[in-house]
Amino acid sequence: MASKNLQIYKEDYLPHQWDFLTIQKRQPQKKLNFLCGGMGSGKTHIFLHKCLYNHVTKKNADGVSNGWCIYPTYSLAEELFVEPMKDIFERNGIRYEYNVQKHRFKTMYGTIKIYQLQTPHRLIGANLNWVGIDEFDLESWKNCEIAYKKAIGRLRGSDDTELFIVSTPEGFSYLHHIAVEKANDQTYLVKGKTTDNPFLPDGYVDLLETNYDSRMLQAYRDGEFVNIQNQSTYLFDRSRNVKKCEYDRSQPIHIGIDFNVHPFCCVLAHVYPYSPKVQVFDTISLSHQGQGDLLTQRMADTIKAKYPNENYIIYPDASSRQRATSSAFSDFDILKMNGFQIRMGNKNPLVINRVNSVNSMLEGNQLEPNIIIDPRCQDLINDLLKVVNKPNTRVLDKSNTKLTHSSDALGYLVSYLFPIVKPTLGAIQR
């Protein structure tokens, strides 16, 4: 019970809705809360109820609640929030005034001011107790970023504040950035599936599954962050390719290596060639620290200290064969002096063939994939999810300097051990 006018019961909500509604009651430190859900998973319903709940319960020192409700546009807010909220107020016996010009509700508890994401520079106001944003991923990264930072800057009405965001995922947008990439002790992410809602019309899920491909279904049915704007280069499936991989000192360490200075990336794996299986148990990334830093030596020292072993096998970028770390020794010299075996061809395979080798192993067969990656390898997982080709080409898009390094390192290892062997027609008989 939140007040004499508002009662909430767990049985009235789906599990993910209740989790999202009551997170702060269970964990008060969670000030930034997100719900990512498929179509028809009950996002709009719980957003309305969370706005109501916070409006009644979150107050400043004067006992007044000040909150913002933000939608992509005012017209969408009118449709999804204003009219339904009027009905919710009436059903709960809460008198209200709504000012159309100022886009503002006023009740005995305080005010709810409505804004639109399209004009985030207009987000101005006094100290707030809560902010709710619906359909966040429909707006641009820039506008979402401005709105998010402005909202956080005004959550100072009391110690009991909350910013909550609800959206259907639209690829790796700003919601993924703040809810996953920048997650911390104050953030909490709830995911809801379309199939979690037993109250949908008959045939609704079938309609989604008929009209959407597998990637879009992961987003719009399962509420998962996937690359849907551009097709990902790699056929990576988190549900199949990610699970715990343990380091086994009795096994050689196979190391794919991408020679860069910002960063220098290694992928560490156990390989079982007759299965065939590649189990990636760790990745290591180091950046150059300035003049005098022998980066290759530091990487070798880091690997040997972290994973003592009698057998290190390196699969590097062949184009870096002559890259010199110092006037005396090449990178390859340093690796050999540290006891690393080096395996590579005279030249790198074509990028498309390297990618195809990785994809073939990622897919494996119907029963299981041939590449398994430990969940700790977040930089590699991030790469496999986000790397795309340039539009209308098979050329990797390297415009984001933070991407492609770990996946390239994996590619050098996999393409050497499990190359794509193209069939030949043989001699032509005339």
Poorly predicted spans: 422-430
**What general form does the structure show?**
elongated
Strand order of the largest sheet: 3-4-5-2-6-7-1-8
The radius of gyration is: 27 Å
Helix % is 25-40%
Sequence of secondary-structure elements: HEHEHEEEEHEHEHHHEEEHEHEHEHH
CATH superfamily of the largest domain: P-loop containing nucleotide triphosphate hydrolases
Largest sheet: 8 strands, mixed
User: Which structural class best describes the helix and strand composition?
Assistant: alpha/beta
Which CATH top level class of the largest domain fits? Alpha Beta
* DSSP helical segment count: 13
Number of strand elements: 14
Strand residue percentage: 15-25%
What is shown here, in short?
This protein is an alpha/beta fold and 430 residues long. Helices cover 32% and strands 19% of the residues. It has 2 domains: 10-220, Rossmann fold (3-Layer(aba) Sandwich), CATH 3.40.50; 253-417, Nucleotidyltransferase, domain 5.
Question: Can you tell me about this structure?
Answer:
By secondary structure, the protein is α/β, with parallel strands linked by helices. 32% of the residues lie in helices and 19% in strands. The strands form 2 sheets. An 8-stranded mixed β-sheet has the order 3-4-5-2-6-7-1-8, with helices on both faces. A 6-stranded mixed β-sheet has the order 13-12-9-10-11-14. Helix 10 links the parallel strand 12 (312-316) and strand 13 (340-342). It is elongated. The termini are far apart. The relative contact order is 0.11.
